[in-house]
# Entry
Amino acid sequence: MRSNKVSGIDLFTHKANENFQKHIKTQSKRALEILDKAINWEALIKPIESELHKERSDYRAGRSRIDLLVIVKCFILQHIYGLSDPRLEEEIADRRSFQLFLGLSSGDSIPDETTICRYREQFSRLHLDKLLFNIFKKQLQRKNLILEKVVLIDATLKPAQATARSERDQDSSFTSRGGKSMYGYKGHIAMDLGSGMISNTDFTPANVHDSEKFESLLSGNESSVYADKGYSKASRTAELEGRGVSCGIMEKGHRNRPLTKNQKAINRQ
# Structure
């Protein structure tokens, strides 16, 4: 943890936080206030804390509960704003809305990038990242902040940190996109259009085709599903429409059967 003082000046004085809460109304601050009130943090933290306690050598005795809550909220901030560990540390020191969301005040310290990275490794190893995501998602669903009626599905590539010859990242693989080869992973992602929140994810080696994970990203509550032509399959379209789901998967042309003008128009739309 990093000190909350710069040149001897406390970054998180109660007076400064009170003034910010009363007079500064930014979009980021309002969004985080809504999220903070919507989530039952006690219910979110309890199962994670229980799993950490099973590894007593890693979860040190005497660690305060607020530390874990701060780390979990840090992960959420990273997810929402797309921040790396070093950048998150900087933003916490600089942004009052982040400080308030994390519950930091006078005498508290800023989580440094090493601490955040260490917890991420532990969460990944114990599969607590998936547990956190699922509990977080269910709470948002109960508050009707994620409806999953109109869903967008796509995949994104993530390069591995090591080369193929290294012993690290052994579960990654090669793929090519745009004529360029890449060694790494693929994130298969479903997004709830109404809220802009990610509703389901699956991460695989990069050589797994986008289409293979389509069904696993659906919740069964969708009224419409949209995806690019990489997911196009006649049986898939028939199955969705058979369930009364509007299929917005782009049409794909085939050899000796090019797209019609109407299909091209629908794809553009």
Observations:
- Strands lie at 5-6, 9-10, 150-159, 173-177, 180-192, 198-205, 224-227, 246-249.
- The radius of gyration is 22 Å.
